Amino acid sequence: MTHEDINLLLEEYLDDTLDVDTALEIESHLSGCSDCSEYLYLLRVLKEKIILLPNKIEPETDLWLDVFKEINDVKKAAAVTEPIMIRDMGTSKLKVNKKEMRERERVKKSITKVLNKKIRTKKKITTTLVILLLCLTAAVICFYVNSLSENWEVKAVRGLPLLNNEKVLITADFDEGDILNTSTAGQTEISIPKAGKITASSNTIIKRIPGKYAVEFKKGTISASITSTQEKFKIIIPGANLADHSPGCGFKITSDTGYSLIEELTSWLKITGGGREVYLPSNYNCAVWESSGPGIPYFVNASSPFIDALQSFVFKRGSQTEISLIEANAAEYDVVSLWHLFQTAPEEFRLAIFNLIDKFVPPPTGSSQQELLALNKDMLMLWLKDIEKKY
Amino acid sequence: MSHDNKLIKSLIQNAQAGMNSAFEQLYKINCGRVYAVCFRILANKTEAEKLTVRVFFTAWQQIKFMRSDMTFSSWLTGITVFTVLQLIRENAAEIQAKQPISIKFPSLSPLELAILNLPRDERTVVVLHDIEHYTFNETTDMIGAPPRGVRELLNSAHKKIISEIDL
Lengths: 391, 167
Fold this sequence. Notes:
The structure holds two protein chains of two kinds. Chain A has helices spanning 3-15, 20-32, 34-51, 64-88, 91-149, 304-315, 320-329, 335-344, 347-360, 369-373, 377-390; strands at residues 153-158, 162-163, 166-167, 171-173, 179-181, 187-192, 196-200, 205-208, 214-226, 234-237, 240-244, 249-256, 259-266, 269-273, 276-280, 284-289, 293-294, 298-299. Chain A is an alpha+beta fold. The radius of gyration of chain A is 51 Å and the shape is elongated. The N and C termini of chain A lie far apart (130 Å). Chain B is an all-alpha fold. Chain B has two domains: 1-99, Rna Polymerase Sigma Factor, Chain: A; 101-167, Arc Repressor Mutant, subunit A. Classes of the chains: A alpha+beta, B mainly alpha.
């Protein structure tokens, strides 16, 4: 072999893929040829370097989308040409295609099932919403119609009351602005939808206030039973407004020129007037003056010395004497009176009244004496709640 | 497949069952390898990317017929080489890069650049024989040239590389 032939075979010699004779011949040549020996050395170094080249080179862009597109295109094309393919294929391939078709059909069915389920759920939700909406609309309409149809009514129980100076024989609507004068009639009832009932005695004058859920009681005697809640219905008397403080309150009012007496029979009544709020529990009375509003409520069976001392303290700008009398005569059931007195009394007497109330109902949890003496309204109302519970 | 690990085997089986996500995983594992072969032989990024896509598409088509005694990697390299060589035969004139390789790929190592700067046939032989470790006879068969011709190509390529880089 020539030098060139051997030079060409050095790659294979290095790979050890030559037969023994050729390899021996090359080795013999190498011992005398420095060019080939040097080249073989360089070739070995080069091969070692080539082995170190990275096995992978990542492309700069992700090519999967392109691959996936190609796959999808073929799938679509296969789907279109499938009938022809089936005809052209042998039995085995036909079986494969049938299997694939079955599989596809199965997937299609399951997708349809899921979709149908979704549609059904969607339909159900829509139907429920529509029903709810219809119910809501019906309820609103019913409420509106009801409120229109349920008129206030005056019923002559005994005698013939006058409604806007016209006699009511049996019943009549009590419209906004109407004035009822029971005159000599013995008993007249006013039915107020969703609010309750007022029974008026003779010589009573009541006016329905336009635009409000309220009546103005000018004079006479009425018994009211309020079934509404949250002060929805109001009775306006000279010097104060009356509303329920807790549901189901029943009370009697006797009113004459500039003065009214309210007798609470059941539950709690709220009286607002003269810049004050008075809470009247059952079996408590409260006087209301047209000029100054409600006074201090008192228990119907309170002792006379207690009531006298209370009146004296309020109207005669109280002194230590009255406070001492109140302290001496106050009983547990007078605590509501004391609570009201505590708020109206001059500052120097407040501590004494505070201690008196404390004897019967301790201040509420979380309140402080200082806050109560400073007449913190929230704290006072909490105290009243405790009193209500105990009462 | 017999020498593949459990993950690869599972991916192959799922891909054979038509699960694209399994084939995608196989793509992710082998993409760099396929692209390296394509890029080193073609010395052209765009063509290498196109060919990588074609190789994986072919693999997806043929995976059902993959022999169980082969590893996925060697099977895929076979498809890659076959596809590259086919492309070269079809578009021999168009593929050869006109610009010097070193300008286009400044980040590559001197050895890599020296290989990329070789004439296409020499480069192909170097990639197949030296980098992909096909034997001389296998390389000859793939190239479809007489053994002496392949020897000459390999010898010439090595000499050029040796003269080009500092060993």
